[in-house]
Amino acid sequence: MNSVDSKKVDLSLDNEKFFHIYGHNKTVGLFTLGCRVNQYETEAMAEKFISE
Fold first, then answer.
1. Residues 1-52: pLDDT tens digits?
2. Cα separation of 39 and 1, whole Å?
3. Among 7, 26, 35, 36, which lies 20 to 30 A Cα-Cα from 45?
4. What local confidence, expressed as pLDDT, does residue 4 receive?
5. Residues 6+ apart with CB under 8 A from 39
6. Domain residues of the chain, as ranges?
7. Integer Cα distance of 24 and 9 in angstroms
8. Rounded to 5 degrees, what are φ and ψ at 13?
9. Distance of CA 26 to the CA centre of its chain
């Protein structure tokens, strides 16, 4: 575990400031439990992150 994982991270920062402080870009992970509704919702959230 690195030092960033053990403390709170300020996600309100813009990407440039975030990278300067934490040394990496913001990332997001999505986990689907398996049913078709969850798969649809996960896919919709992923598309929203990609488009923004």
1. 455 556 788 889 998 999 999 999 988 888 888 788 889 999 999 999 888 7
2. 30
3. 7
4. 52
5. 32
6. 15-51
7. 12
8. -70, 150
9. 6
Residues 26/18, Cβ–Cβ less than 8 Å: yes
| Tens of pLDDT, residues 36-50 | 888 999 999 999 988
Length of the chain: 52
User: Residue 22: which of 10, 39, 36 has the closest Cα?
Assistant: 10
Q: Is the dihedral of CA 42, 46, 47, 52 positive or negative?
A: positive
User: What pLDDT is stored for residue 1 in this prediction?
Assistant: 46
Is the full-model pTM beyond 0.70?
A: no
C-alpha closest to that of 19 among 32, 29, 9, 28: 9
